[in-house]
Amino acid sequence: PAGPVAAMYAGLQELGVANGEDLKETLTNCTEPLKAIEQFQTENGVLLPSLQSALPFLDLHGTPRLEFHQSVFDELREKLLERVSAIALEGKVEERYKKLEDLLEKSFSLVKMPSIQPVVMCVMKHLPKVPEKKLKLVMADKDLYKACAVEVKRQIWQDNQALFGDEVSPLLKQYILEKENVLFSSDISVLHNFFSPSPKTRRQGEVVQKLTQMIGKNVKLYDMVLQFLRTLFLRTRNIHYCTLRAELLMSLHDLEISEICTVDPCHKFTWCLDACIREKFVDNKRARELQGFLDGVKKGQEQVLGDLSMILCDPFAINTLALSTIRHLQDLVGQDTLPRESPDMLLLLRMLSLGQGAWDMIDSQVFKEPKMEVELITRFLPMLMSFVVDDQTFNVDQKLPSEEKGPIPYPSTIPEAFTKFLQENRIACEIGLYYILHITKQRNKNAFLRLLPALVETFSDLAFGDIFLHLLTGNLTLLGEEFALEEFCTSLFDNFFLTACSKKENVHRHVLRLLLHLHHKVAPAKLESLQKALEPTKQ
């Protein structure tokens, strides 16, 4: 019989063991079928003299022979599986592997027999190097490839980058989708946002765990995954690939896989940065440590800067560096100190520009730190500090008894240079956006409305990027009461969001997220005109 039944006996003939075909032949060519069956049973049954008298006893109980043989078979298979796992751990290394190789040689012809397959797979799983010929046979057969353990697949993958790529690719797609779902999620809150989960929690995610398992301790596979991530980052400019680069290394770090961690030159830097991301702040001690790593890049090893820049381009790293920069700025105002006099501030800027320069560096393959623009430190940051001072003076003025000339109005203009910096300088733009998030979180409506016009045109449209809009919509929930005011809505919607809605679908989606959350606070007439403006186009 062909098909599934034939598969049950696959490979028995080569071993000289009788199978269904042999029985069929015997019965076709004999004169006394019952005698022939009895003989076949005697020749191929369990060869234990004491068993012969016991078997009729089972017949009396109506237990079919198949059931008996099946249970003996299952017992023996369990014992054999245990034994294989034991052999893999005992005796001298060469000897144990020699035993397993012999066993594989004997059993491999039965690999397609469903009942024996687990044993063959178990033997291969425990062999650090399965013979090339056997790997090729497994690889060529879809079902065998699917059935074999990840330990065997690793041996196949390490010489078949394309096949490994096919396995990894859907996981990377899933990872990016998961990130985008969080950014566009309809839950808007200041407390739970994209950056809320701790690094350790993020590394428990399905994709990171699966990739970690696929790599095991195999440096070659780890390098392949990093190569995939670099290529995809270059192709798409999607910075979530940088997050995965860091998460993967730290996931292997959690499992103490020194075979990989010790050869990844970014390991200690990433580990230190990971601690900063957990605290959402770079403290002095860690700042010195991170600076030590950057200063320690030796001549001839500059290529490591490409990897470090990718680690620093991870949005979670940028978020931590930017938040720390804003905190330092406020401290400097209190200390009457200029940014150029603060080594910590200069290091934060150095790391931000290394991270922001990741794509260019990997693309051009020119591995040197980007030059820091002096004006960023001498002009832009002091300008942000002057905004902090404006707020403080205004607050003091409000508390003073008013003279005849009435209360002093809040400064409404912004220096032209501020707008120019946001348009032309990537680092300035990133820090400027985080400053705006900071004042929104403080419910500082005056400062928010003053600086908002500068966001309409920013460096490569960063103000209309998903991460910034995700955070901004969250922080705006704190200004919920202002949405009833015409002036506030006009500034926010007409003069900012709606300028980009028709061109950028993502902005459209973020505005809808915000309104879904706050529509009941908006004046009815305004809400109506917004609904008209936000109706999707025919396409």
UniProtKB/TrEMBL annotation:
Which InterPro entries does UniProt cross-reference here?
COBRA1
Origin species:
Eolophus roseicapilla (Galah cockatoo)
This protein is called what? NELFB factor
Under PANTHER family, the record lists: NEGATIVE ELONGATION FACTOR B (PTHR13503:SF3), NEGATIVE ELONGATION FACTOR COMPLEX MEMBER B (PTHR13503)
- What's any one GO cellular component for it? NELF complex
| Pfam families in the record | COBRA1 (PF06209)
Q: Which domain of life is it from?
A: Eukaryota
Q: Biological process GO annotation list? A: negative regulation of transcription elongation by RNA polymerase II
- What is this protein's gene name? Nelfb
